[in-house]
Design goal:
223 residues; mainly alpha; 7 helices; 80% helix; disordered N terminus
Length: 223
C-alpha cells in the first residue's frame, strides 16, 4: 500500500472531485484553482532540482489530504449553492407578488360573484408566504456574504438556518399555490382556457423546476 506522500496530483484531484458536492460550475472552478496551485508547486520543486515524479509527490503532500481539504471546499460550495437558491427564490417571489393578479385581470368571471371566504384567505396567505420567501432569500444572501467575509461559524449556521427556512417557505408556497390553482379551476371552468393563466402556468412551472434543482443542489452541498 502506498504512503500518503506517494499520491500523485491527478489522484488527489480525483479524490476531491469524488467527495465534493455542490454547483457544478463552482466545483469545476475550485478544482481548476487547486490544479493550478499544484502545478505551481510542482514547478517550484523542479526548479529546486527535484525529479518530476518526486516534485509532484512533494507538492501533493504539501497540498493536504482530502480530510484536510474537503471541509473548506465544501463550505464554499454550500455558500455558492445557497446564493443560487436565494437569488432564484427572490426573483420568483418578486415576480409572483407583483404579477400574480394579472393572470385574472379582465377575465370573464372577474366581475362575477365574490369567491368564498376560504378562497380569499388562501389567496392572501399565498401573498404572505411569498413575502416571507423574499425576506428569507435576502437574509440568506446577506448572511452568506457576511459569513464569507468574516469567517464566522455562527454566521454560517445562521445562513444555513435561513436556507432551511427558505426551502420550507418554498414548499409552503408550492402547496398553497397548487391548492389555489385547483380551487380556481373548480370555481371557474373557463380558467383553463384563459390565455394569461396558461402562460402564467407555464412560466410558474419552469420557475418551480429551477427552484427544485437549486434546492436539491443546496441540500446536497449542506447535508
Amino acid at each position: 500500500m502506498r504512503g500518503y506522500q506517494d499520491v500523485l496530483m491527478e489522484e488527489r484531484l480525483g479524490e476531491l472531485a469524488g467527495q465534493l458536492r455542490g454547483p457544478a460550475r463552482l466545483k469545476a472552478d475550485l478544482l481548476t484553482e487547486a490544479r493550478h496551485g499544484l502545478l505551481d508547486a510542482v514547478e517550484a520543486y523542479r526548479e529546486a532540482g527535484l525529479a518530476p515524479a518526486e516534485a509532484e509527490r512533494r507538492a501533493v503532500a504539501e497540498f493536504g489530504s482530502p480530510a484536510q481539504l474537503v471541509p473548506g471546499y465544501q463550505a464554499e460550495l454550500a455558500a455558492g449553492a445557497l446564493r443560487g437558491l436565494a437569488l432564484r427564490a427572490l426573483a420568483v417571489a418578486v415576480v409572483l407578488m407583483a404579477g400574480g393578479d394579472l393572470t385574472w385581470r379582465g377575465s370573464s368571471w372577474s366581475n362575477g360573484p365574490r369567491p368564498p371566504e376560504g378562497y380569499l384567505l388562501l389567496s392572501a396567505s399565498l401573498n404572505g408566504i411569498w413575502a416571507l420567501v423574499a425576506g428569507l432569500a435576502l437574509a440568506g444572501l446577506l448572511l452568506g456574504v457576511l459569513a464569507a467575509r468574516y469567517g464566522s461559524s455562527r454566521l454560517t449556521r445562521l445562513a444555513s438556518a435561513a436556507g432551511f427556512g427558505l426551502i420550507g417557505g418554498l414548499a409552503a408556497g408550492a402547496l398553497a399555490g397548487s391548492a389555489l390553482f385547483g380551487w380556481s379551476v373548480g370555481l371557474w371552468d373557463a380558467a383553463l382556457a384563459w390565455p394569461p393563466m396558461i402562460i402564467g402556468g407555464v412560466l410558474v412551472s419552469a420557475a418551480w423546476f429551477a427552484l427544485a434543482r437549486a434546492s436539491r443542489c443546496w441540500l446536497l452541498a449542506t447535508c
